[in-house]
Write a structure and sequence with these properties.
- The chain is mainly α and about 250 residues long.
- The protein contains 8 helices and 4 strands.
- The strands form 2 sheets. It has a two-stranded parallel ribbon with strand order 1-4. The chain has a two-stranded antiparallel sheet with strand order 2-3.
- Helix 1 packs antiparallel against helix 2, helix 2 packs parallel to helix 5 (about 125-155) and helix 2 (about 65-80) runs parallel beside helix 8.
- The radius of gyration is 20 Å and the shape is globular.
- The two termini are about 25 Å apart.
Length: about 250
């Protein structure tokens, strides 16, 4: 099937309709979200910065912001309601992952299996951090999607870069403001100054990463709009986060 020229439609006009690549984008979002939490969250890496020296950072920051890029693509191409459905899917998958990790770690190991300590080190979870992560993800993603959808209507679909970066500034700001105080405020080894420093540093890094990926976002958004043949605007959309109907 040839790619069609996208035409402007209200998001409500697409209720109940199937779109060619929506399910694939949803799968990519959930996969990156889970993998960045499993593979990236537990490792502290370092990078050499001229004039600063070695600077530590959480390895997950390399890939977790990609979920925000895909969130931007979802809202820009498919509208707030379909992005909302994906956010809830990711939230549910994260809860299942946390429960599964806890159950598997707590299962008594066989006497001849000697990797329990390593398994606990990699997959063991601190409940406070898990709860903080899920709350921050939920709130941050919805703020990101809401801001982008509103800005698209306000700008008439112009200046995509401004919408993606602006929504990430807001969404990642809310994410960081919730996660770091909830996860680390008052924890052993975490002073108030350290919490605030890490919060601001991670927020700046995530927004910068989003800005660097702007050309990729343009390519993906343009291709998907042509492939789907629509350019969705959230005119009259109900922006409640509590729903999954598309």
């Amino acid at each position: 099937m040839d790619e069609a020229t996208p035409h402007r439609v209200a998001a409500s006009a697409l209720h109940g309709k199937n779109l060619r690549y929506y399910d694939f984008v949803m799968a990519a979002f959930v996969a990156i979200l889970l993998l960045s939490n499993v593979l990236g969250a537990g490792k502290v890496a370092q990078i050499w910065l001229p004039g600063v020296g070695y600077w530590p950072f959480g390895a997950g920051i390399l890939f977790f912001p990609v979920s925000y890029v895909i969130g931007d693509v979802l809202t820009e191409v498919y509208g707030y309601a379909r992005a909302r459905r994906v956010i809830w899917a990711g939230f549910a998958a994260t809860i299942f992952m946390a429960v599964m990790a806890w159950v598997v770690v707590e299962l008594p190991p066989a006497p001849d299996w000697t990797n329990q300590a390593a398994y606990e080190a990699v997959f063991g979870q601190v409940p406070r951090i898990v709860v903080a992560s899920m709350c921050a993800f939920w709130a941050g993603e919805f703020v990101n999607s809401y801001v982008l959808a509103r800005m698209k209507v306000a700008t008439g679909g112009k200046h995509l870069w401004m919408r993606t970066i602006g929504s990430t500034v807001a969404g990642q700001g809310v994410d960081s403001l919730i996660f770091y105080p909830m996860a680390f405020w008052g924890a052993e080894g975490w002073t108030t100054q350290l919490v605030l420093t890490v919060l601001v540093t991670q927020w700046v890094l995530k927004v910068s990463w989003e800005a660097l990926l702007t050309p990729v976002t343009y390519v993906v958004v343009g291709w998907l709009k042509r492939a789907e043949g629509v350019d969705v605007y959230d005119d009259g959309t109900d922006f409640t986060p509590f729903g999954a109907r598309v």
